[in-house]
Amino acid sequence: MKTLVWLLLSGLLLINAANANNLGATPIQTGAEQLERYLPLLQGKRVAVLVNQTSQVGEQHLVDVLLANNVNIVSIFAPEHGFRGDYDAGAKVNNSTDSKTGLPLLSLYGANKKPSAAQMQQVDIVVFDIQDVGVRYYTYISSMHYLMEAAAQNNVAMLVLDRPNPNGAYVDGPVLDVKFQSFVGMHPIPLLHGMTVGELAQMIKGEGWIANADKLTLNVIPVAGYQRDMPYALPVRPSPNLPNEQSIALYPSLGFFEATPLSIGRGTAFAFQVIGYDKFALGDFAFTPVSTPGAALTPPLMNKALHGEDLRHVSASGLNLSYLLRWQQLFAKHNDVFFTAPAFMDKLAGTDQLRLQITQGMSEHDIRASWQAGLAQFKQQRQPYLLYR
User: Fold this and answer.
1) Alpha carbon distance 144, 117 (integer Å)
2) Cβ atoms of 357 and 370 closer than 8 Å
3) How far apart are CA 313 and CA 10, in angstroms?
4) Is the pLDDT of residue 86 over 80?
5) Are 77 and 49 spatial neighbours (Cβ–Cβ below 8 Å)?
6) What are phi and psi of 273, to 5 degrees?
7) What's the CATH number of domain 31-233, 3.40.50.12170, 2.60.40.1640, 3.55.40.20, 3.30.1330.100?
8) Which of 49, 68, 109, 266 is in Cβ range 3.0-4.6 Å of 127 for a Cys bridge?
């Protein structure tokens, strides 16, 4: 009987998204769930929000909660994948009107990544509440960067409602060289930076990584009851091709394959959990990418029978270079080009050194050794901005 009770309790904890680190712990509260701490900052103000489908307060969207509390929302900014999170990666997000609330939806993805001065003049404060996954090339933090800069330049306050980082226990990968700065890498931070969006916002301001940083009034509502090494299963998928915990854990390692001709499962039910190719393969797992919601923009190798690796049940954490190294070696054996988009690979890595190290045949041990001085410096640099143990 005791065993049965324990199993039931364990199941309840898992259903609660593993957001308590032990049986007696108080479940964490995201910034958005602590209304008493930030509603006073919004009352009587003209408010714009940068949100998407992850901006939940319990079972309700943050926009609905704010409207129910008489907050004057004048506009909704939409990042990559759109306000509802149903746009493909890279798909153009158009300005429109939210059918539920009638509020204007203003895209911050595509040609217009930064709010205009005219848009910012309509508001007194902007709110950022989006679930991140802690990987530098995941573009929500780039949208936050541009929103912060627009706020600083137009005398608009900014409020960040913090959320846990599901990869928060890891600081790894090359630190971005500013020569390779792009929308998939805006800041001189490692690929896995181990920070929440609230901590990162404080660092962006504190290090002067935006214009007029000293003029920005920034408030962060931290996650209550949170430590950065806590497991955190996201209650809502953060984007169409990160459907579960396994995909999020593998994302730092498999994202680099976007610069190769291989498929990492876009156009299947297990995106970022497989690796496959049609000409030759490591492994015999078979799958066929097709046009699907979230991968309608011609996923790589669409409608082709592929073979490769099934990673849906491997133990995944942090950054694993072995996948890249093994597949690059296979391509070299077949005299085929592995990095078919080398410039994009360099943007993802934040440097050209990783691509060169891999193609030159360096070992994972030696590649990792080349990062260590930069990682040590970053850990010291980020220290004043950390909110959690």
Assistant:
1) 16
2) yes
3) 21
4) no
5) yes
6) -140, 5
7) 3.40.50.12170
8) 49
In this predicted structure, the answer to whether residue 95 has a pLDDT above a threshold of 80 is: no
SS in 3 state form for the chain?
Answer: CHHHHHHHHHHHHHHCCCCCCCCCCCCCECHHHCHHHHHHHHCCCEEEEEECCCCEECCEEHHHHHHHCCCEEEEEEECCCCCCCCCCCCCCCCCEECCCCCCEEEECCCCCCCCCHHHHCCCCEEEEECCCCCECCCCHHHHHHHHHHHHHHCCCEEEEECCCCCCCCCCEEEECCHHHCECCECCCCEEECCCCHHHHHHHHHHCCCCCCHHHCCEEEECCECCCCCCCCCCCCCCCCCCCCHHHHHHHHHHHHHHHCCCECCCCCCCCCCEEEECCCCCCCEEECCCCECCECCCCCCCCCCEEEEECCCCCCCCCCCHHHHHHHHHHHHCCCCCCCCHHHHHHHHCCCHHHHHHHCCCCHHHHHHCCHHHHHHHHHHHHHHCCCC
Break the chain into its structural domains and give their ranges. Answer: 31-233, 245-373
Backbone angles phi and psi of 142, in degrees to 5: -70, -40
pLDDT tens digit string along 209-265? 999 999 999 999 999 999 998 989 899 999 989 999 999 999 999 999 999 999 999
> In angstroms, rounded to a whole number, what is the distance separating the alpha carbons of residues 20 and 17?
8
Give the dihedral sign, CA 117/121/127/131. Answer: negative
Distance CA(90)–CA(344), nearest Å, equals: 13
169-212 pLDDT tens trace:
999 999 999 999 999 999 999 999 999 999 999 999 999 999 99
Under a CB-based contact definition with an 8 Å cutoff, are residues 175 and 371 in contact?
Answer: yes
How many alpha carbons fall within 13 Å on the CB side of residue 134? 28
163 φψ region: left (φ > 0), alpha (ψ -120 to 50), beta (else): beta
Choosing among 3.20.20.210, 3.40.720.10, 3.90.1150.140, 3.30.200.20, the CATH entry for 245-373 is: 3.90.1150.140
d(CA 93, CA 200) in angstroms, rounded, equals 25
Could you report the per-residue pLDDT of 318-344, keeping only the tens digit for each? Answer: 999 999 999 999 999 999 999 999 999
